Amino acid sequence: PGLHIIAIVFALEVSVGKTNTVMALNNSNVLLPCVFTTCIGFQDLVFTWYFNSTELIYHGRIKSKAAEPLLVGRNPRVEFVGSTTGKENNISIVLKSVEFSDAGRYTCHVKNPKERNAQHNATIFLTVVQK
């Protein structure tokens, strides 16, 4: 009998799609996309959106694949538009009535306790332009 080596790969991935830059018209609503994938599923997963690394603008928790995210805290101008019970674990948000001061770096951060608290994030850059 040979020696069998079993490798356990924890693979939490977070993505904002093909491009990491988004342009929005001043005073419009803009979608900030984010999806995550995990090989072994998730439980009590926590996701957070940050603006320029420090300002927390959305914080949610997802109990399991069968449950939609619970809002923990958010900026009043941020609306959650994702869904995690379908095929894609979509944790996208919409930023409402964007202003020039909203331009900057948005980071979607995911932490999965089921994967030994694996953490990953993806960043998207928002540019706000005048009509």
From TrEMBL:
Record bears the keyword Glycoprotein: yes
Keyword line: Disulfide bond, Glycoprotein, Immunoglobulin domain, Membrane, Signal, Transmembrane, Transmembrane helix
Domain of life: Eukaryota
InterPro entries, alphabetized: Ig-like_dom, Ig-like_dom_sf, Ig-like_fold, Ig_sub, Ig_V-set, Myelin_P0-rel
PROSITE patterns listed in its UniProt record: IG_LIKE
Example GO molecular function: transmembrane transporter binding
Keyword Acetylation carried by entry: no
Domain annotation Ig-like: ranges: 1-125
GO biological process, one term: regulation of ventricular cardiac muscle cell membrane repolarization
Topology term for the membrane: Single-pass type I membrane protein
Entry GO CC: voltage-gated sodium channel complex
UniProt cross-references to Gene3D superfamilies, sorted A to Z: Immunoglobulins (2.60.40.10)
UniProt-listed Pfam families: V-set (PF07686)
Localization, UniProt: Membrane
Protein's name in the database: SCN4B protein
UniProt gene name: Scn4b
